[in-house]
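Bench notes, afternoon.
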Amino acid sequence: MSDTSVPPPTAPREFPCGSCGGRLEYSAGARQMRCPYCGSEEKIPEATREVREHAVETLFDRRPAAQVAGHRFICEGCGAHIQGDHLAQTCQFCTAPLVTDDSADVQVPPEAVLPFTVERRAAHDSLARWTNSRWFAPNSLKKVNEAERFKSTYLPHWTFDAATVSDYQGKRGEYYWVTETYTAQENGKSVTKTRQVRKTRWYPARGRVSRSFDDVLVNATTQVAPEKVDALKPWPLEKVQPYAHEYLAGHEALRYDVEPEQGLDEAKKVMARTIEQDCKRDIGGDEQRVTSVDTAYSEVTGKLLLVPVWAGAYLHGGKTWQIVINGCTGEVQGERPYSAAKITAAVLTAVLLIALAVFLYVQYGG
């Protein structure tokens, strides 16, 4: 049963500007804190620890996300009371950055963050290149280079490590060739010919493979279409930093709603695909079939990681189309309109080309 009690209001983390007293925000372009009022910049303090992996049992020993009440902020900028379920957001009245304190969240806290490196202008440029490169899109789409409600948002992901040992059974296929005879027509006469036909001889196979997995990434939010977020991969995980509140200032950050147990189940599906390929390589031969795999997992650890996404929408033809942009690479994934006229023209062109090829073959080919 969900906890319906109203949480007490808390003061968010503060990032005061040492020059004008304003509130600093994390700047993707500068990769440090910047004041939006006076432009002064401050470095983010050096991390005093490394990114840690946690035994999955400690991740599981938490209240379910559905039972955790949202946060209530008291904005230090204007005194407004803001309620929400984000780890970070901006005040809707004065745009001051609001970042939760760790003690205010009873879920698994973020262990690491992949900071934004693509700033807003660069994200708009990526959107413009994307719209200009869409085949079969209306010509008017190329004029779209801005997005409405364009927000920089950190999305939660689970990452898992594991050592695996897998016993498999399957079959190894080896090619061999046989000579077959067949009858063909030549100059109106039946003639007998021979040809080499490839066949496969199958042998039983079994064995054991092992592998260590590192940072298997699983989407931990359902608020953004998982298929769009997955399409933004790969993420430059070598740039992951230990979690610091400063990276969230001025941006949104979602709490996870996919439980770590669910995340581990999805991660094992990802691992299973790699393990199957390992089994096939171990079987060898020309073809392989894997009929069963029994995998034992050990040293399973995980953590909660925040990855950066520009999420928004653009208006075209009276309809809103959603897009997401990788906040590190600028990769764009999203919805787009199609031009019926362009598709029809392409189909007619293809039909005409086929008809022309047939005509030329009939006239000159025989």
